[in-house]
Specification:
This protein is an alpha+beta fold. It has a single domain, classed as Methylpurine-DNA glycosylase (MPG) (3-methyladenine DNA Glycosylase, Chain A), CATH 3.10.300. The chain binds a DNA duplex (13 and 13 nucleotides) through strand 3, strand 4 and helix 5.
DNA sequence: CGTTCGATGCACT
DNA sequence: GTGCATCGAACGT
């Protein structure tokens, strides 16, 4: 038996990310996104991802070529691309493929594992820009805490400070960090659908969901093509 | 159930 | 000035 090593599993290696983005999007399901900072440790099982691939993908942030904001997309695979949108949400991607080719996997939902109370605390109170949140004070069920890319970033305390974070390295004993581990959780059943919340590129089925996960974003498969394989 | 719409800041044209 | 890889409250059915 391969017992738990002290300190837990190793982060996924760089080579995991240096592959076609659709494969990485599929294989990230069942892996564990781990966040450590001064407030503590929080983690969750990845159950929903989306692929954004190259300048020819109209929904990719690199569709108009390199800019200061999208620079991490052109950088090293295995690093985070975090950006701010809609004036209030941070979204987390894992950069894929190879240096110079802009591609990434957006992490859209987690099933919380560790730090549920910490996530719950972060989901109430004030928004990223200090805005008052209108949500009710009732405790959210665990599977709602990291449902949606903006929500999971908030629950994990991820901001622009985590942009370009190396996902292949654990945090130091006391330091902050963001990484992805393999804890051996199998995800056998996945469904590919069109990506959510974009205006173009909706013909591509590049969203990958662990079938039946209660944490995946609400989505009606009847209104769009859902299949066992990615593609246009 | 369903759809609409405001919040809110910043990158880019 | 425009539009966003969002969220959830508010309203209609």
């Amino acid at each position: 038996m391969s017992g738990r090593r002290p300190g837990g599993p190793r982060p996924l290696p760089r080579t995991f990310y240096e592959r076609p983005t659709l494969e990485v999007a599929r294989d990230l399901l069942g892996k564990v996104l781990v966040r450590r900072d001064a407030e503590g440790l929080a983690s969750g099982l990845i159950v929903e991802t989306e692929a954004y691939i190259g300048e020819s993908d109209p929904a990719c942030h690199a569709a108009s070529g390199p800019t200061p904001r999208n620079q991490p997309l052109y950088g090293a695979p295995g690093r985070a691309y975090v950006y701010f949108t809609y004036g209030m949400h941070y979204l987390v991607n894992a950069v894929t493929e190879r240096r110079g080719f802009p591609a990434a996997v957006l992490i859209r939902a987690l099933e919380p594992i560790e730090g549920v109370d910490l996530m719950r605390r972060r989901r109430v109170g004030r928004g990223p820009g200090g805005a008052r949140r209108r949500g009710s004070a009732r405790a959210l069920p665990a599977h709602h805490l990291c449902r949606g890319p903006g929500n999971l970033a908030r629950a994990l305390g991820i901001t622009l400070a985590e942009n370009r974070a190396d996902l292949t390295k654990r945090a130091g004993r006391n330091g902050a960090g963001l990484w992805i581990e393999d804890r051996g959780v199998p995800v056998d059943d996945v469904v590919w659908t069109p990506r959510i919340g974009i205006r173009s590129g909706t013909d591509l089925a590049w969203r990958c969901v662990a079938a039946g996960s209660p944490a995946a974003s609400t989505f009606s498969p009847s209104s769009a093509a859902a299949s066992r394989r990615p593609g246009p």
